[in-house]
Specification:
The structure is a homodimer. Chain A is an all-alpha fold. Helices cover 69% and strands 0% of the residues of chain A. At the A-B interface, α8 and α10 of A face α8, α9 and α10 of B. Chain A binds a DNA duplex through α3.
Chain lengths: 192, 192
DNA sequence: CAAGTAAACTAACAACTGTTAGTTTTTTTA
DNA sequence: TAAAAAAACTAACAGTTGTTAGTTTACTTG
């Protein structure tokens, strides 16, 4: 791991501000002030406000894509794959509590990289859909509407960024495990 | 039901734009242009940009609060209450596909009404938490971490606005029922 | 310690922001 | 059809926006 550059600090600070008010509502003067400098000085380190957003979002999106690829080709059951996806989201979100807000809410302000982002996202959804469909075919997963199961799981995982910061006494391992239980088994008490 | 005023049209159009780019990125000139008029003309109908956001968010928040109150005091099981909450979200979201985006993402730009909104929201979460806790106590709901169950359900329901527009061939009744199944029973196949 | 580089600064820009004032046009009502 | 009300307009404002140019200060390195 290399040393953190000034650019990295700016991006980290920006992510924090973007989470609070959204990309559009944060001005370069806000960001500069949070960094203890003047707005013009930021441009010694970054090319534009856009570039900051791009750095935050694209690196996260690629991290998810890469993580899911590994899970996809591993030789485990469908349910286990879903459990690994839960871990992936919990881990990335735990380490990027702020950036995840931009990924979820400010992707539409990407300009040149918007199409690339949308491609990564739809591929991600498609791969996860495939994992679920496989599980249904193999009889591991109930034969309910696949879109609804996909949506329900993904909504929960994508919202983790709102919730992990409030409960960060829970370690990632325990959180992943308990979350998997709820997502996979549901909440109703079974009659054993 | 009364006739739709020009103000209502403006708010509806604003909600649509707010969903696409977020409150901060939509200018009064954008809104005016979408309405086929000049920015200044908007002010014959509305007091400020803020007021539009307030109208969108507060009316929705109050609708949820009221809906949950009715469910809370009805004499049904905890699981049934949760199923009613699912219906509540599906119905309100189906009828407010655009406004729900503001409720989820732009509430922090409320000014005078921010505290009121935060109060409604935390009361809502607390009441739902109570429904779950009751269910656990009565043995209807598994004895897992209540916060995780609350978070998982609420994340899914709060994300409906992203998903309903894409699948609106599904009618609200069917969607509510299938979503309840997934949330309550989970996705794994039981050994009958 | 000299030279080079990194990182801050001041000043300014052109475009855009929400909003107001005052006026004209269109629609409704008596 | 005249008067009143509703709804649009033009023009402009004061403040804010992202960004650039040019300069000064601080740190690193040979």
């Amino acid at each position: 791991m290399k040393a953190e550059t000034r650019k990295d600090e700016i991006i980290k600070t920006a992510a924090k501000l973007f989470k609070e008010k959204g990309f559009s509502a944060v001005t370069m003067r806000d960001l500069a002030s949070a960094m203890g400098m003047k707005a013009a000085s930021l441009y010694n380190h970054i090319k534009s406000k856009q570039e900051i957003l791009k750095e935050i979002i694209i690196s996260l999106a690629e991290e998810f894509t890469h993580g899911l690829e590994l899970i996809q080709k591993s030789d485990i059951s469908s349910i286990q794959k879903i459990e690994e996806v839960v871990k992936l989201h919990v881990n990335i979100t735990s380490q990027n509590k702020f950036g995840m807000a931009s990924l979820n809410n400010d992707w539409m302000h990407l300009e040149e990289k918007l199409d690339y982002y949308l491609e990564l996202r739809s591929n991600y959804e498609e791969e996860l859909r495939q994992i679920i469909a496989d599980g249904v075919k193999k009889g591991e997963i109930i034969d309910e509407n696949i879109e609804i199961m996909l949506f329900s799981i993904l909504s929960t995982l994508r919202s983790l960024y709102l919730w992990i910061p409030k409960k960060d006494y829970l370690n990632p391992e325990k959180l992943s495990q308990e979350l998997s239980t709820v997502l996979v088994k549901g909440i109703n008490k079974k009659i054993d």
